[in-house]
UniProtKB/TrEMBL annotation:
E.C. number: 4.4.1.13
Entry protein name: Cystathionine beta-lyase
Native organism: Nitratireductor kimnyeongensis
Catalytic activity: L,L-cystathionine + H2O = L-homocysteine + pyruvate + NH4(+)
Cited NCBIfam families: cysta_beta_ly_B (TIGR01324), PRK05967.1 (NF004626)
Reported cofactor(s): pyridoxal 5'-phosphate
Molecular-function GO term, any one: cysteine-S-conjugate beta-lyase activity
Length: 390
C-alpha cells in the first residue's frame, strides 16, 4: 500500500483490533458467536416500545454488529448491513432504491449475476435497465434520464478489468439526482474507499478477500449517512440476514486480510508482468500494468491491486481455452476468487451489449493465490504450451 491512504495507524493494526473490544466480553480476544432468533424483553412496556438494543435475530446481534462496526471503519461509512452472499449485497440495495417506473444505469462490464438480476427481476418489477460502456466515464451524462435513480458501477470490470473514472461518474450522477453504487470487491476498502470518492453505497462480496479461505458466503453493503436509513429499512423488510457462524468467519478473516492482500498483489503483478512477454498471450488485462488503458486512473485513485486479472490468448477459441485450463496443475477450475488457492476460468462475454470483448482470442481469468510464484509460473507456462498443441 502506498502513502495515499495513510492513517494514524497502519492498515494491519486496524484490521487486528477493529470490530471488537475484548473488555466487552470478559477479555476474550474474539467476540462470541451469538446464535439467536428470539430475544426476551424485561417487561410489557419495553416489548411494546421495542426500547432495547436487540429485538429479534433478523435485526442484528452482537456478532453482526462486530462485523458491521469493523466494515464501517474500513469503508468510512455511516452504517453497514450484512447479507448472506455477494450477490445479495448487490440486489438488496438495488431493491431498496429502485421502484417501478425508475431507470437504472449499469456498467456493461458488470458481474454477470448482477446483469441477470437486473434483466429479470428488476425489469419484471417495472424498472427500466440500461447499460453503459465502461469507458464512458462522464459521458454517461448522455444516458441519464429524468427518472434515473441509480448508477451501478464496478471497477475494474468483471472479467476484462476496465477501469472507470469514479469521481467523474459520481459528479454526473449526482447532478442528475441519482445515487451511485459501486461493487468494490476487487480492491476491497484497503485499496480503494468508494465513499471517499463520492460513491453513496459500497458493495463487497465478503466471500472473497475478507473471508479469504473459500469456505464462506457473505456480503456487506456500506452506505453514507444520506442513504443508510433507507438501506437498513429495506434490509429489515426483506429479512435477508446472514448466519452468525459465517459472520464470525469473515470477521476472523479480516484480521489477516492485509497481509494476504499484499501477497496476492505481489504474486499477481509478478506473474502479470511475466505473462506480458510470453508467446501465446495477446494481452494481459491488469490495471496496475503500465500497458493497461486504465492504468492512469488506477494509479490516481487506487492504493493497490488485488490478485485477480485476465489474459487474452493469442488466437484460437474454445478449444484452446479448454486446453489451457486442462493443463493446469495448481490452478483449480472454479468461479470464485479471493481465497488462498489459485483458480482459473474461461470468461464468457456473450452477455455484453455495449462494450466489445477482446477479439484476439479467449479470455482466461486468473485468481492468484498464496502458492509460491515459481510453481504458478511453471504451471502457466505448461498451460500456454498446451494451447499450441490444441
Amino acid at each position: 500500500m502506498n502513502e495515499k491512504n495513510k492513517t494514524k495507524v497502519g492498515d494491519n493494526t486496524r484490521l487486528a483490533h477493529m470490530g471488537n473490544n475484548p473488555r466487552d466480553f470478559h477479555g476474550f480476544v474474539n467476540p462470541p458467536v451469538v446464535h439467536a432468533s428470539t430475544v426476551l424483553f424485561p417487561d410489557a412496556g419495553t416489548m411494546a416500545s421495542r426500547n432495547q438494543k436487540y429485538t429479534y435475530g433478523t435485526r442484528g446481534t452482537p456478532t453482526t454488529d462486530a462485523l458491521a462496526v469493523a466494515m464501517n471503519e474500513l469503508e468510512g461509512a455511516a452504517g453497514t448491513i450484512i447479507v448472506p452472499s455477494g450477490l445479495a449485497a448487490v440486489t438488496v440495495p438495488l431493491l431498496a432504491f429502485l421502484s417501478s417506473g425508475d431507470h437504472v444505469l449499469i456498467v456493461d462490464s458488470v458481474y454477470h449475476p448482477t446483469r441477470h438480476f437486473a434483466d429479470t427481476m428488476l425489469t419484471r418489477l417495472g424498472v427500466e435497465v440500461s447499460y453503459y460502456d465502461p469507458s464512458a466515464d462522464a459521458g454517461i451524462a448522455t444516458l441519464m434520464q429524468p427518472n434515473t435513480k441509480v448508477v451501478l458501477t464496478e471497477a475494474p470490470g468483471s472479467g476484462t478489468f476496465e477501469m472507470q473514472d469514479i469521481p467523474a461518474i459520481v459528479d454526473v450522477a449526482h447532478r442528475g439526482g441519482a445515487i451511485v453504487m459501486m461493487d468494490n470487491t476487487w480492491a476491497t476498502p484497503l485499496f480503494f474507499r468508494p465513499l471517499d470518492h463520492g460513491v453513496d453505497i459500497s458493495i463487497q462480496a465478503a466471500t472473497k478477500y475478507p473471508g479469504g479461505h473459500s469456505d464462506v458466503l457473505l456480503g456487506t453493503v456500506s452506505a453514507n449517512e444520506a442513504c443508510f436509513e433507507r438501506l437498513l429499512e429495506a434490509h429489515g423488510a426483506l429479512g435477508v440476514c446472514a448466519a452468525p457462524d459465517d459472520v464470525y468467519q469473515v470477521l476472523r478473516g479480516l484480521r489477516t486480510m492485509g497481509v494476504r492482500l499484499e501477497r496476492h498483489q505481489q504474486s499477481a503483478l509478478s506473474l502479470a508482468r511475466w505473462l506480458e512477454g510470453q508467446k501465446g498471450v495477446a494481452r494481459v488485462l491488469h490495471p496496475a500494468l503500465e500497458s493497461h488503458p486504465g492504468h492512469e486512473i488506477w494509479k490516481r485513485d487506487f492504493t493497490g491491486a488485488s490478485g485477480l486479472f485476465s489474459i487474452v490468448l493469442d488466437g484460437g477459441r474454445e478449444k484452446q481455452a479448454h486446453a489451457f485450463l486442462d493443463a493446469l496443475k495448481y490452478f483449480g477450475l472454479g468461479y470464485s476468487w479471493g481465497g488462498y488457492e489459485s483458480l482459473a476460468v474461461h470468461v464468457q462475454l456473450s452477455d455484453r451489449t455495449i462494450a466489445q470483448p477482446p477479439k484476439e482470442g479467449p479470455v482466461i481469468r486468473l485468481q492468484i493465490g498464496l502458492e509460491d510464484v515459481e510453481d504458478l509460473r511453471a504451471d502457466l507456462a505448461a498451460a500456454l504450451a498446451a494451447t499450441v498443441k490444441a
